[in-house]
Amino acid sequence: MNREEIIQKLLQENKEFRYHYEKHHELDAEIDKLEKHHPMTHELEMEIERLKRERLYHKDMIEYLIQEYMKAHA
What we know:
By secondary structure, the protein is mainly α. It has one domain. The chain is 85% helix and 0% strand. It has 3 helices and no strands. It has helices at 3-13, 15-35, 42-72. The radius of gyration is 15 Å and the shape is elongated.
């Protein structure tokens, strides 16, 4: 099973994975929107950095759950 197939299986069967996956994509869209804002204020830069840290957390959780699935089904 390749990585994309594992992701699709986890999206269907694992609520925790689906939550982190959807949250990561929501944050990605929000960050893209905010980065296009002009003029850029210090507060906006700080908010973008906070959102990027949160997005990274969800990305790490996605990767962790993929790795756990791969170990369990090796």
